[in-house]
């Protein structure tokens, strides 16, 4: 059964303004919001973030550059009486009385009503806002609050489906504002009118709203957080102020607004600027380093002016991360969680601000058990739990780095089956190329690692794949382009050229007919240096699980470009932060939105994507679930962690990393 359509859908709205000299200013980016009939929504953000622009688009006064608004199944293309706007400056005709100003709207719109019916509608609206005694007065004879009541009465008189309020009480004194807020609340509750209000007033938003939509600062303002207001209706000011959740919500809104003052610097365009072209990029020998190898070997780096790019094969993820932090490497093929973890201070280390503006690959990992364990019937996480309880053994499993998706997904998979990954088993950090050796020697009973090392263990007959990340979280970010924040600020043109070259390389890697050629490149000793059959398994041909069951080829077991793969989505970055905090690998930042915005640079990805004329929008900001069905809501990350049955104690801090920090670090 299909879900009913929302009453209003703001459908991926972008608003771009042309500036002089061919420049453009992106005011709003990828605004997607569904509003139900009768809801009261407040748009809150700093001045200049596009709140009024968005309201004008909903009203039909302005057309979005891309995307649009659908109301009651019809696209909004122009103003209409179903949407009435109340402005801050009243917009009353000074030569008309209160009655005449209200009647002006009724006479213009409700032409099908009789004169008596129109008169009744005007009188009713005037009474709704308690202006009966002032019906024959002119605006000059009214206070500011009374003028605003007239504006509201004029809007209500035609009984619109939607009331759009653009800071309607911003110019009023506190007492008048409070009185009008109460009256508006009563009228909206009585009529069931859908309201969308722009406001800077945190307390006003909490009093009136069902949901508060918090917009980030521009350029490219977007929805940063949505707060659901739990106060029962009908409301009164006293009950709202004394609600136990009031000050928590208020503090959350103020914290959001304060974080916006420290947003990353605006994008620097580099479309026509030459680059230095000399870069050293680190990588680990894995199949998902393919975009770097393709960009180097097939000329994508050179195409964008990066003529002298050196790819440096690193011995371990620790060495690679240290190389980026200490400046030996300009950037690297990096574990997806690593820029966030190192920025937050992994394992108590000082914060070292890193960032990513590109996801290089998704998926590509597997959990492999030793054949000995598999032959004892241990083939799922539940089997493993039963085995551990039956034998009392504490088995060891290999991971590649604490800040790896291998670690986070293996922990999630184990914990979902009731296995504590720190107490019931032991997780050892082992570089990917050494996994098979340690499995062969019996030092570990399995591992979670990327290709080709799972296939290597299967080919040697010592391992069996029991799950892939398609079974745990299909489409998760696996490797990213990681650079220091200060490096990107100092080299904006090289950085943009690098991102553009790698986006094209990602697209090349996801064209299946290119995979045999890419596998041949990766087999070279300078890169992965593996056997062709290991490189082909899961990349060109079906993944061999080693269980004797024929498998079908899964083209998205390795995913580089499809489904907007290269975009470093902020919601998935926030999920990563919850898991780093869940296992006490990093503190959870109280300013989590600021950290996500600072590290996962969707704006810089978008700048490169637009120059390539490819899709630059981030995937939709919405809740999602992994294989166990537990829903992650990006507006309530702490609740997600605290609901986990197996977790460590939370360490919540405000993290404000300074770009350019250079203190020694062990990662």
Automatic annotation (TrEMBL):
GO MF terms held by the record: ATP binding; ATP hydrolysis activity; nitrate transmembrane transporter activity
Taxonomic lineage of the native organism: Bacteria, Bacillati, Cyanobacteriota, Cyanophyceae, Acaryochloridales
Protein's GO biological process: monoatomic ion transport
Pfam family, one: NMT1_2
GO cellular component term, pick one: plasma membrane
Topology versus the membrane: Peripheral membrane protein
Superkingdom to which the source organism belongs: Bacteria
Keywords from the UniProt entry: ATP-binding, Cell inner membrane, Cell membrane, Ion transport, Membrane, Nucleotide-binding, Translocase, Transport
Gene3D superfamilies linked to this entry: P-loop containing nucleotide triphosphate hydrolases, Periplasmic binding protein-like II
Compartmental location: Cell inner membrane
Family the UniProt entry places it in: Belongs to the ABC transporter superfamily. Nitrate/nitrite/cyanate uptake transporter (NitT) (TC 3.A.1.16) family.
Coiled-coil annotated spans: none
Protein name stated in the entry: Bacitracin ABC transporter ATP-binding protein
ABC transporter domain boundaries: 8-242
């Amino acid at each position: 059964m299909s879900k009913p359509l929302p009453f209003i859908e703001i459908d991926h709205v972008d608003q771009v303004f042309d500036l002089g000299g061919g420049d453009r200013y992106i005011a709003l980016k990828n605004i997607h919001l569904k509003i139900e009939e009768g809801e009261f929504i407040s748009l809150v953000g700093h001045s200049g973030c596009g709140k009024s622009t968005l309201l004008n688009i909903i009203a039909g006064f302005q057309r979005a550059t891309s995307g649009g608004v659908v109301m009651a199944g019809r696209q909004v293309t122009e103003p209409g009486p179903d949407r009435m706007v109340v402005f801050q400056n009243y917009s009353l005709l000074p030569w008309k009385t209160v009655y005449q100003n209200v009647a002006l709207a009724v006479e213009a719109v409700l032409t099908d009503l009789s004169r008596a019916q129109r008169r009744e509608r005007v009188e009713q609206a005037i009474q709704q806002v308690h202006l009966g005694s002032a019906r024959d007065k002119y605006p000059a004879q009214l206070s500011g609050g009374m003028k605003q009541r007239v504006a509201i009465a004029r809007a209500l008189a035609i009984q619109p489906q939607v009331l759009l309020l653009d800071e309607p009480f911003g110019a009023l004194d506190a007492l008048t504002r409070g009185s009008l807020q109460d009256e508006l609340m009563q009228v909206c509750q009585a009529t069931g009118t859908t309201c969308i209000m722009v406001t800077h007033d945190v307390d006003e938003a909490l009093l009136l709203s069902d949901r508060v939509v918090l917009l980030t600062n521009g350029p490219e303002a977007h929805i940063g957080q949505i707060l659901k207001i739990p106060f029962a209706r009908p409301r009164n000011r006293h009950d709202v102020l004394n609600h136990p959740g009031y000050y928590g919500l208020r503090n959350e809104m103020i914290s959001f607004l304060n974080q916006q003052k420290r947003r990353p610097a605006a994008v620097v365009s580099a479309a026509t600027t030459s680059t230095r072209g000399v870069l050293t990029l680190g990588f680990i020998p894995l199949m998902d380093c393919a975009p770097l190898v393709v960009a180097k070997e097939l000329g994508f780096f050179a195409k964008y002016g990066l003529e002298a790019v050196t790819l440096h094969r690193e011995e371990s993820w620790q060495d690679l991360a240290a190389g980026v932090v200490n400046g030996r490497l300009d950037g690297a093929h990096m574990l997806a969680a690593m820029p966030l973890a190192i920025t937050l201070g992994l394992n108590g280390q000082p914060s070292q601000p890193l960032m990513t503006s590109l996801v290089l690959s998704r998926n590509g990992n597997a959990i492999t058990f030793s054949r000995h364990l598999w032959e004892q019937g241990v083939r799922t996480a539940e089997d493993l739990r039963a085995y551990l309880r039956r034998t009392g053994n504490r088995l060891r499993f290999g991971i590649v780095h604490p800040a790896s998706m291998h670690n986070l997904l293996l922990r999630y998979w184990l914990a979902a089956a009731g296995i504590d990954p720190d107490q019931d088993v032991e997780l050892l950090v082992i570089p990917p190329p050494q996994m098979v050796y340690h499995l062969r020697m019996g030092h570990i009973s399995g591992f979670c690692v990327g290709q080709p090392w799972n296939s290597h263990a299967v080919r040697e007959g010592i391992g069996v794949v029991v799950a892939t990340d398609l079974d745990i979280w299909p489409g998760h970010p696996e490797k990213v382009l990681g650079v220091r924040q200060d490096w990107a600020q100092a080299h904006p043109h090289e950085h943009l050229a690098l991102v553009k070259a790698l986006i094209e390389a990602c697209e090349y890697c996801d064209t299946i007919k290119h995979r045999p050629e890419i596998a041949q490149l990766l087999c070279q000793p300078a890169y992965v240096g593996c056997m062709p059959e290991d490189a082909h398994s899961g990349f060109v041909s079906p993944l061999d699980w080693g269980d004797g069951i024929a498998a079908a080829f899964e083209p998205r077991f390795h995913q580089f470009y499809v489904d907007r793969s290269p975009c470093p989505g902020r919601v998935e970055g926030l999920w990563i932060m919850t898991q780093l905090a869940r296992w006490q690998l990093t503190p959870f930042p109280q300013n989590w939105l600021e950290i996500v915005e600072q590290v996962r640079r969707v704006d810089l990805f978008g700048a490169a994507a637009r120059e390539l004329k490819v899709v630059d929008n981030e995937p939709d900001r919405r809740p999602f679930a992994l294989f166990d069905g537990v829903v992650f809501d990006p507006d309530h990350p702490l609740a997600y962690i605290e609901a986990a049955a197996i977790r460590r104690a939370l360490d919540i801090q405000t993290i404000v990393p300074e770009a350019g920090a250079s203190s020694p670090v062990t990662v």
